[in-house]
Amino acid sequence: MKILKRNSVPFFILFLIHTFLLGFTFYRNKNRKDILVLLVSNMGFAYLFEYFVFNLFNSYVYKPKIVKKSFFDNVFGAVLSQAIFVPFTAVFLTLSKSGWVVKISGSIYFSLIELLFLRLGVYKHNWWKTIYTLILLPFYFKWSDYWYSCIGKKNQIVQFASYFLLIMVTETNLFFVLAIMRKFRFGMGRYHSWTEHFILSPLYSITLSVFTAITMKKQNDVAAKLKVIVLAIGLNYFFQKIKLLKNKLRDIEYLLIRIVMVFVYGQYREWVYGERDKG
């Protein structure tokens, strides 16, 4: 229990700080749909970056000691960083119209946290260096400004990309929860390792998200929803058949999840495009 408390406390403190920043941002601004789209888009960009740096090339290790299994605990630490700490801050800086000085200060802030976490032993570098964090974060914060500006201008490319990112983040988080529950596991061969799962699962999420975004962008009706559900069930069946996926969910459970998801993605479409289609 002592180790759990010592490791998890720094993450919990950061969670409180950045949740307050985000809450303050929503409180101070009325255009909350656009802010929400920006937030999840920022998460999506962070997830895509993390897929290459963390999932594929094992850049660093998180040790929050929140999830019992160490592999999941490591991934959960990455989720906290890429879905909460950094994106929440990016949204706060964008909506407060901060300049380069504040953005660089934000980068220094995260770099100092990184050094502190290294010292506390709740985080470890493999090949990553703190200087990379210091250099890259200001550009990520600036990219958030640009994306929010394009959202406000109804840029069609940014709207579609945002819609895709909202779906992808949701699918990624869904499959992470199912993996923790030991219900969903990708892998090759007889034994499906979790390392393989977290390489293959994001690719599955991206594929499903691209198809969903293209299909439901055109029309948010029953036919579009059915196409997405049929594809998801078809892929699920195909990957199980070729033994690339172990799915312990019952068919009715997976179908219900897919039905709920398409209605959620219909709501996302309204947030992004500001319109509602009946169906």
Automatic annotation (TrEMBL):
Mark the transmembrane ranges.
12-29, 35-54, 75-94, 100-118, 130-148, 160-181, 193-216, 222-239
Does this UniProt record's set of keywords contain Protein transport?
A: no
Which keywords has UniProt assigned to this entry?
Answer: Membrane, Transmembrane, Transmembrane helix
**Protein name, entry field:** Uncharacterized protein
Tell me the classification of the organism that encodes this protein: Bacteria, Bacillati, Bacillota, Bacilli, Bacillales
